[in-house]
Design goal:
Structural class of chain A: alpha+beta
Oligomer: heterodimer
Number of strands of chain A: 18
Radius of gyration of chain A: 29 Å
Structural class of chain B: mainly alpha
Strand order of the largest sheet of chain B: 1-3-2
Radius of gyration of chain B: 26 Å
Shape of chain B: elongated
Number of helices of chain A: 19
Strand content of chain B: 5-15%
Distance between the termini of chain B: 94 Å
Strand content of chain A: 5-15%
Strand order of the largest sheet of chain A: 1-3-4-2
Shape of chain A: elongated
Order of helices and strands of chain B: HHHHEHEEEEHHHEHEHHHHEHHHEHEHEH
Amino acid sequence: MAQASMRPGNGQPGSAAPGGGWRRIGWTMLIGPTIVLVILGAYLAVRFGSDTPVTYADDEEHFKYGSTGGEHDSGLPYWIFQALPKICPQYLPGPGYASLGLYFEEGHDLPVGMSKRRYMGIDRTFLNCAVCHTSTVRDSSASRPRLVLGMPANTFNIMAFQKFFFACAKDQKFSGEFIIPEVRSLLSQNHRLHPQAPADLDLIDRYLVYPVAISIMRERMLMLAGRFAWIDQQRDWGPGRVDTFNANKVMFNYPMHRLSEAELNAPADFPSIWNQQPRKEAQMQLHWDGNNTMFEERDKNAAFGTGTTPPTIDLKAIGRIENWILTKDAPRFPYPIDTAKAGRGTTVYRKYCSACHGAGRREATGPYDFTGADVGKVTPIDELRTDRHRLDSYTYELAVNQSTVYAGYPYRYTHFRKTFGYANLPLDGLWLRAPYLHNGSVPNLRELLQPASKRTPVFYRGNDVYDPVNVGFVSNVGKEGAQEYFKYDTRAPGNGNGGHEGERYGTYLAEADKDALVEYLKTF
Amino acid sequence: MQTAQQYASQQNKVRWLVVLVVLLAAAGYFGWYKFFREEAQPDWVTATPEMRFKYGSIDAEYNAGIPYWIYYVMPRVFADKLPGPGGLASLGIAWEQGQELPVGFTKRVIGFERVANNCAVCHTTSYRASENEIPTFVVAGPAHTNVEGYFRFLMDCASDPRFDADVLMPEINLVINLSWIDRMIYRYVLIPMTKKQLLAQKEHFAWIYRPDFAPWGRGRDDAMNLTKYFMIKLSMDDTFGPTDMPAIWNLKKYDDSRTNLNWAGDSYDAYTVVVDSALGLLGAPPHDKADFLGQVDWLVQYLRQMPPPSYPEAFGPIDQKMAARGKVTFEHECALCHASDKTGTRTPRSAVDTDSGRLDTWNKQAAIDANRIVAQMGIQRRGLVEQPLDGYDVPFLDGIWLRGPYLHNGSVPTLRDLLKPAAERPRLFWRGYDVYDRINIGFVTTGPGAQRAGTLFDVTATGNGNQGHEYGTALATSDKDALIEYLKTL
């Protein structure tokens, strides 16, 4: 057949000549596009294939700004994140992310507790551990804040943070038309400060990457807003608190509207994370209700809050933090302490408190002594009688669901247990852990030594000005300049300030004894 | 003589043949590895008889196994199709803390990880003295599991257009980093096949969707209808007779050949019941008959020897003097049926007059058909009774304290209720809550806890009648108290 003979390279010796021209054209037609494709492929691989977190050699910097791997799945495109306060200012309590209680160190473009990674061709940012476990302290409203790593994020309002993104994603301005010009303007400002940084989006970013990123982010935020719709029916957690295990139920996509009332409204204070070694070694019952005795499971679970998933969690990065908090100690009380009075307080403490809360600091510079018969163990709720919402939010059904988490990996959870009380916590760095009780319902130590009926029913949270006399943060100031503090009502569900009272709990002590005890507790 | 050219061409053919064979062998190995390779369960599963009973495979994974990662994400993707929050736990399945799978769920690699069930899913129960307590699990006890809820969950998931790789794969990718090849297998083979296989069963489940039949609720199944529609493949009739999961401890009490098992004494011996129930879990003839029968033998031996659980010391001591008085009452009022030659044998319904729903679901022809089908599988057993059955078996009362609610259909919440005339027994209650009622003997069936965890039981629904067995109802209160005290000791 004529057609067949025209086919190049049909194996007949001497037949090459007639087909030679075709062959040359064929090869050219093949080689040209191949080279173009290879170059294009290489370019795309370089541009979109990289997965590079911003890393820090120093452990403390790593804690503050390092990645846990959460940006892979949960990362917010960095420049969109920076643009949103301008796009949706009406959903923030004040100017910028700082109004949510996030703290920006000088010279930093992200607050403490947010990390950055370039992944699939776009810079992304998301939360890390420090966002909930770092805060600031001021001596007075006039003084500069001091950053304290490892303390509860007393000022950070995580519920408002979530609600900001959900509300903005629902806003009609969450679109390329508004966001891209804002991003370009931010880039050009940034270029003036850092001339090596690009002055504008290139064409691929402007017409492909950012439009797609905006639409993906919007879809994702709307999905999360749906799964977190239950928080709209919850009372505001306020700064320094999170409803950990109800949020955890979202991971299993629980139908949240079907939870019983008793499980809901269960926010609890962010905890401090210093001195984990003795906790780990003694296999203390971790979390407020003591639902897990395994340090690593507790940490992996907390890391879900930083956007990680089993495939994306960066265990090495988290391991660095885990290692650092093993021995990182709490800072000491920076105000004068009456040592004679504190000495008298020691006696009271030994009698009433140390069995549950540890032997305390024996000397001003020494380590915290964690020994005590019941330290890190759960006291039944019927005895403790503090607010039970947080306890009831953690159900047996959740515990068994959690034992499926990390299935397929060698570290599947096996230690989550339903408990029926709250854990007795060691008190290292106690002065920075106000307000007190798991739900932060008692503003300062002095009040905790009062019977519940004499504790302040309504006070303000979120202030970082310290009150060294009562040991806690200033809680009677509602407003400071433009900054409004969160009005905490102990009569609301989940906010009860009862319990931890009576003979055993020191609320019957003579005033002088209470005074001495508070003085001693300052040394922790 | 062949020319050099012919020789070369032949050699070429041989070379291609070799390549083809190697490729086919590689493909065959790949297919075998990814779909048929069998791995034993990990050692901890068979470390103790109890663990084996709870988590050990009875070979149901071959036909009834759900690919693990589909099983894993289904409760997340289709949370709205479960009775409440809590994933599979909302079905009241016994689930021990720290365990990856609930009791009665087995995981095994046959090419890929698959999840199926064993006997423990219906035969492990739990109790708690109070709500502020971790459940105590008792193997071989009647489960609180909402079996119909689980069936419906599977059917409803498979029927949902969202049961699709585009929805399931992203959820799977959130929890596990599968290799590219495994993702492709899930996407193009396992997800569509699982959907198809589940949907193929849906027609046989038609009767559980009937609006004129109430849901079985926790702790019950319509066992004989399951046998009719799944094993014998009969078309749907109008009968409905869900019954309590039975306790299956201490099976040696049935060694006596006079006794029969099952609520209506439908089967001649324990071996038959274990075979038939296990075949129900397999959903097909056994993959390896010898292995399957080995499992059955083990189960029968394990359950023959297992003692019934004692009334827990934690519930407070039994008043021995009172129990002794109760024993006298028992001998007078109950022993004639429940501790005599009659025990474990059928008694005419006309005498006891309990709900007939369960009896109506079975008949002689069904027994003949089922026996034939099992015989065709090459399995020898004494089998199902090929006679019309006109009454229920008189049960042995070992471990009766943990077998509430009472009567075959679980229509009477507690022993104390059972000692009341039918007209005074509760008409609406919640079953499946595992907090124990020490006063009335049974589980707590009212109040917010029972309401939240349990399923509503309405005695006016088809098959749910709470009439009959009106024995001892005229006893003096003190005699009833004493009798109940004695029953705790059984």
